[in-house]
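Sequence, structure tokens reproduced for reference:
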Amino acid sequence: MKVILVSILLILSVNAYSQNQIEAINKDVWFNFMQAYQDLDASLFNQIHTDDVLRIPEESGNMMIGQEYKDANLENFNRWNLAQVKQRIQFSFISRIQKGNWAYETGIYKLIRYTDSGSQSYYGKFHVTLKKTSGVWKIFIDSDSSNGGTIGEEDFNRGKILK
């Protein structure tokens, strides 16, 4: 009986620890990511990435590393600010795996751009590797793909939507 009770307590404590790590990742990375996109804040966006981040937009066949990627972010956000882009981004998770100071997450993003005539939604699949450094979760590897435009609202709704 003691073995069963200890086993149950161990399982419950592991689940609670995992949930706390997911909440920390949401706070450190995903909520800041969404805020940066909404506010067009390149500084906040760059802060959620490690200094040696690898950015791999799969369809481009290219890779950006570290400061190269952060500089490109500054250019993009400056361009969006000049154009007064109104947007928000949401995330729907397919898998979230965490061990120690590392995490791997996949899902679907939904980027909504607003114009005077309405809004347009864009979707893509993302794969990120996160690294906890100095007590803060950050994106270490960021890769995504729109799969030729075949990803849509139905795919987004299949995952666990971050709210």
